[in-house]
Each structure stands twice: as C-alpha cells, then as structure tokens.
Here is the input.
Amino acid sequence: MPKDWLERHVYTKYRNLGVSLLMVIDVALFGVAGVSVWAVQMMWIPFWAGGVVNGFGHFRGYRNFDTDDASTNVIPFGIVIGGEELHNNHHAYPTSAKLSNKWYELDVGWMYIQALAALRLATIRKVAQAPYLIEGKRTVDDATLRAVLFHRL
Here is the structure.
C-alpha cells in the first residue's frame, strides 16, 4: 500500500479518472470531434514519453554518472521533452526529487516541487546527497571508497 495519501485515496482508487476526465474536457471543448482529439492524445502520450523522451535521453548528450545503461543528459531540451533532459542523473538517483547535479543544469520539476513544498502541498522525501571533500584529508580510507562507489564519481 502506498504511503502517500493522494496515491492511496485518489490514484489507486480512481485510476481511470484522469483519462476519463480528459475525454470529457475534449468533448466539452471540441464537441464530437473531441473524441478524435482524445484518441490522438491517448496514442501520442505513450509515443512521446516512451519513444521520443527515452530516445533523446539515451542517444546523445553528456553523462555525470557511470550508470549501467546508455542514459545521457540532453540540456537544453527540458521543456520540449517534459523535464527529462537530466535523464542520466535520473537513472543514477531514480528516487531523488531533485534531478539537477551541476550548477548549469536547470531542473524545472525541482522548482515546481519546491514551490509546492513552500505552500505545504508537497513533501520532499528524498534528494540525492551531494558529495563533498573533507578539507585536509589526504588518504583514501573505507569511508572515502564507499562514498565514491555510492555516488558513482
């Protein structure tokens, strides 16, 4: 059972509500032609999410982390591909709410999450810990090795 209230009481209970609501809105906006608009949206979304986004995110770009796949970061296409421009970062830390890792990586999703958290509409549960250096430490010990392996540096 999911821990999140919205997941338990809305998404699991009414799993077809979003798709049905989209159809109602399309028909309200476009009349009978709204059914065709809805059908195109139902075909387009999986194609765009699975094909284009994953295609972009695994084809060309740069990598911050040595993951077991071919995922890459493809800045500056975030708006076009729905925020998945930091695909390699996402594959390295899939449960992190924040995908940006470098100062120049713009994470629009993180901005939304922070805004919702400030309004107490979201709770940030997990963010990848940023690696850091201990000033003056010159030797590599078990803790250093674990940090390097964990953070895939």
The first helix runs from residue 5 to 11.
